[in-house]
Amino acid sequence: YTDEGWYAGAAPRQIFTGNWYLAGDFNPAVALPVFPALAFLLFRLTGVSIIALRAANVTLLGASLLVIWLLLKRRSGRVAASAGVFLCASSLYLYAYSRLGIVEPLLIFESLLSLLVLSFIRPGDPIRKVLTLCAVAGILLAAMVLTKTPGLFLFPAAFYLLLQRCGFSLRRSCLPALVMAAVAAVLLLAWLGMIRHLGLGEDFHHLFSINGGGANRRTILPKLWLVLSDAVSLGPALLGCAAVAIPAALLARRRNLPPLLMPCILGVLGYAIFITYRGWIEPRYYLIPMPLLAIATVLSIQTLAASRLPLLRASAWTLGAILLLSSIVQSATMLRWTLHPSYSYVDAARSLYTLIDRDSCSNRVVLGSVSQETALLTGQPGVQLTDVDGLMPLRDEILRYQPGWYIGFDEVPLDTRNTLSGIDTIDLVASIPAYGDDWGHHRLNLYRLLPACDQREHAKQSQDTR
To answer: Which of 200, 214, 302, 311 lies at a C-alpha separation of 20 to 30 Å from 22?
Structure first.
């Protein structure tokens, strides 16, 4: 539901068991190692804690706001920088998702930092300085891909900014672009080579096989409409103002556009292409392009405000007033959320693990699509298996690791029940609302898995636990 355990699962597994890799299970850290590696370093200092991981992401958001300030202040002045930071800081969307232990805030920071590094390049700079900055940007580009593979779709923004900083001269930008691409490629190929050397190539390809498929010619238009309609979650005011301001700015000033406008537009379009092709829309997907969209909107409004046409200047003031009013309303809502927090999902997970702690007989291996997530929420040791995306067939995984518990939302899926049939019996121990009163139909359920031959022996203990 939040995918917090999905990305960082290797870190608590390493802390709890001494090995980040679990044979046969789903191991996304093979292809996406940056975030779990940082989470592991954090957990070595704090212990396995969802609070620490979420606090780290809030810190990353703060660092991203600082980068936005530096980017806009250098090229567009303090007013644009202040507006860009305020627009992002008052976004309910960024507020909510930056407080989850997911990978997207890290990718946002890396992508913005790569643009900041490239913005230091100026026409006429010594070639050594240019190549050094490009090498640093290449490291960041590689880190983006190893953080979340769709970071590839943000590459055009970086290369366009490099071309722009080199005065749109192919002669000046060719070598720096090659250096940036070569550094990124060498790092990515080195990681891939190490994965193959360790015999984890199948796990690497498995991540992409389960996420295979996407839109085709028949579904592209419905998917595009779905992407646009779901993008309203970024904020109707921001999306509406962006839809008006950006095209108007491009038409009003085809030349001498703000330096960051086109790179941000390319970044938004690149990620929109990924989301549309992916076809499987997750709300957190929109988190990556949101700061770029905010920057592009601010720069577009600034461009319209500097126009000679009274109509364009008036439209700029109108759009700015709409965004300001919307940001004030969102800030009030944000304050209400902060003063009245709810952690019903965390509380439900901890309650279920309390029941697991009381049972000393059952194997402390937890099966379920949210097993890694609940372990991260509670900081409880044990082996967590996913019943959805594992590399090994679920039946073989159950026979190998002999899980004692199953945690999931609502009912156990039929295919999972069929797999368990003849191996384990399923005994419902507890069912707790995971999303408060408004989400009462989403309950976090705990089942004890009993070997079919041992059902009678555990029947009395099961009743006592209840």
So the answer is: 214
**Other CB atoms within 10 A of residue 211 CB:** 12
Contact 450, 458 (CB under 8 A): yes
Decide which of 315 and 224 is more confident: 315
Give mean pLDDT, residues 57-84.
Answer: 94
Per-residue tokens: 147? 């953080």
**Which is nearest to 424 in space by CA: 454, 450, 386?**
450
Position with higher pLDDT, 74 vs 352: 352
Distance CA 328, CA 342 (A): 23
Q: How many C-beta atoms surround the C-beta of residue 123 within 10 A?
A: 12
First-to-final CA distance of the chain: 27
Phi, psi of 20, rounded to the nearest 5 degrees: -75, -15
Q: How far apart are CA 191 and CA 31, in angstroms?
A: 9
C-alpha distances in angstroms, 304 versus 78, 186, 262, 322? 17, 43, 15, 15
Please tell me the pTM assigned to this model: 0.91
> What values do phi and psi take at 311, rounded to 5?
-65, -40
CA-based max dimension of the chain? 85
Residue 30 half-sphere exposure, CB side, CA atoms within 13 Å?
24
Sign (positive or negative) of CA dihedral 158, 162, 164, 165 = positive
- pLDDT tens by residue, 211-245: 666 666 666 777 777 777 778 888 899 999 999 99
Q: Chain-wide mean pLDDT for the chain?
A: 89
